[in-house]
């Protein structure tokens, strides 16, 4: 082919798309990531970047800080985990639904989707993207406060007819604090009063310079209602994921984080677990929070029973000893004895925290003395 999109070229060069856009801008060309450039321009860019192509070194790879770090050679590409944030009524739920409707149902037997707190979509390229189905900054900051930083990419939804609002700003601040890259989805562009450019300008006040304005934050115009340019948004996510080089070791005992949990009358304690590394299998013995369990069954976001779940895959897990909390870590262990040991240890730590954290009330002191 004699043309290539800026995004694809950036990928092949292992460069940030935004840097290419900047360079093109300096050459007097206003293009976005998804736009194609001709071969001559592409070659010019390659020579310009030729001297300093940055190969991601081992130390750049974001690996779990737990003591047992996976060796570089064991790591393979994994899907990104995406959280959608933004002001109320700007279209977070609509966007999640639209993305899910577009990409999940097609080709699935039955096509019945189930709410498990997270879902995966498959892109035409075959790549997968995991969406946390709990929009809102509360869930995000609550998980983070508990030490569970599961989100790789934040999609900030801003309604083009409304612009930046207080919760948009909060979401920006949470995202910055977490150090998570952001993609801006300028939504509701179908509305006559939509002013996408105003949104981009308002973002400047919060040091967010979108690509359209020569910065490195991808911005995508969408309409969740009319399902316009959802592909563009998914492409932007895929591109950001490429840049992050997300990898995990699928061949080890699984570790994951609880996204949602509840007590089901018929099935007992249920938890949606996002596997972070390793592969979770039916029959695995695990500790989650301060309780132990054994995977009795796993159900995916289509309501299908699955036998195993690899990195970045969300599954509903049956077989828990108790209802865990969102943000709890699930760790697979060798045997039941070990599970009890770890669970007991965690319970002791929790109890100790509880007694030291909560100062004794006067009533307590008197009660103790009596
Ligand atoms: P959330 O509070 O951010 O989850 O927002 P919702 O998804 O519930 O959407 C709020 C309202 O905006 C609903 O009435 C949606 O139908 C409407 N809405 C969402 N996306 C669009 C869009 O792209 N265009 C238009 N015109 N309306 C939208
Ligand atoms: Mg909503």
TrEMBL record:
Q: Tell me where in this chain the Tr-type G domain is found.
A: 77-245
Where GTP binds, per the record, is at 86-93, 133-137, 187-190
Localization: Cytoplasm
Tell me which domain of life the UniProt entry assigns to the organism this sequence originates from: Bacteria
Q: Which family does it belong to?
A: Belongs to the TRAFAC class translation factor GTPase superfamily. Classic translation factor GTPase family. IF-2 subfamily.
Q: Outline what the protein does.
A: One of the essential components for the initiation of protein synthesis. Protects formylmethionyl-tRNA from spontaneous hydrolysis and promotes its binding to the 30S ribosomal subunits. Also involved in the hydrolysis of GTP during the formation of the 70S ribosomal complex.
Q: Which protein, by its recorded name, is this?
A: Translation initiation factor IF-2
Which organism's genome codes for this protein? Sphingomonas arvum
Q: Span within the entire protein?
A: 275 to 644 of 850
